[in-house]
Amino acid sequence: MVKNRKLVIVGDSAFAEVAFEYFMHDSEYQVVGFSVEKDFLKKDNLLGLPVVPFDSVEKILTQRNTTYTSRWFTRS
Questions:
Q1: Any idea where the domains of the chain sit in the sequence?
Q2: pTM of this structure
């Protein structure tokens, strides 16, 4: 499967790790990073990818040659 769309997963929990596995193996998306609200930013990377503040995700990842970002939210 060709990974021609880039994806940023919102969150850095175990659920985000499961989402990473699904997107990496069962979709056309290449996960390029994770994002959380600034107040909850506790780590710089997850699974070898950057974790960046949500309010600056587009700016930071665009600097890293990421041209497509997508936000994925869940509700409990």
A1: 5-63
A2: 0.77
